[in-house]
Amino acid sequence: xxxxxxxxxxxxxxxxxxxxxxxxxxxxxxxxxxxxxxxxxxxxxxxxxxxxxxxxxxxxxxxxxxxxxxxxxxxxxxxxxxxxxxxxxxxxxxxxxxxxxxxxxxxxxxxxxxxxxxxxxxxxxxxxxxxxxxxxxxxxxxxxxxxxxxxxxxxxxxxxxxxxxxxxx
Length: 169
What we know:
Elements: H1 5-31, H2 39-60, H3 68-96, H4 108-116, H5 118-121, H6 123-126, E1 138-139, E2 142-143, H7 144-164
Antiparallel strand pairs: 1-2
Helix pairs in contact: 1-2, 1-7, 2-3, 2-4, 2-7, 3-7
């Protein structure tokens, strides 16, 4: 898809806000709808925040084809895309493996969350409160983690568009 740089930047901004909005929706679902998060849910929240920050930063990167700014943009695209791919993997793992397990204690997700210390710093947003099997919820007949997967795919696609967006003129 051939996008002008200004359109790609706007799309990055909107996608970044959507990523952050998904964390807000998860927070609402947890505290208002009593949908308690599992370790893989929390890991995806963290990844949405990181990918959102990367996309918003990509919206601010100058539109040049050569030099340090262009290299910086490509590195930022690669990092943002890598974190989005990690989100895809986390959502798939949650759907295919973790949601079918009675316990998801001490998985990679638990180690990342504990290692970052976010569960201790901001427990209302990052504390694990359910097992993966107990946290399994459908929204319009589709498992919650598959909605997450779809958003991560969209975010990775938007980041990729910023790699090669053409400059105006």
